[in-house]
Write a structure and sequence with these properties.
The chain is built from two helices and no strands. It has helices spanning 3-43, 48-77.
């Protein structure tokens, strides 16, 4: 196995799925925060916990998008194409 094949496997098997998983987790946290916030509005409860979950969900999604962008920029700088699955 060459270094290029190893790098492509690393990106396509480990890094990309991990980024997708973390993005999905952040999206679920955001959605749960929306549900908590709307439920607190309806029942007159504490809105802060829903706000915090929404904030952390958005922050997590932004971090994952940034990580993907940084990886794309670094690979583009060295003329390396992202591997196709």
């Amino acid at each position: 196995m060459t270094a290029i094949e190893l790098r492509n496997k690393l990106i396509s098997v480990i890094i990309t799925p991990l980024l997708q998983l973390f993005f999905a987790v952040a999206l679920v946290i955001f959605a749960w925060g929306v549900v908590q916030f709307l439920n607190a509005l309806r029942e007159g409860g504490n809105l802060e916990q829903g706000k915090q979950h929404m904030l952390w969900g958005i922050l997590g999604m932004a971090i994952m998008m940034g990580a993907y962008g940084i990886i794309t920029i670094v690979l583009g700088t060295f003329n390396v194409n992202l591997p196709t699955q």
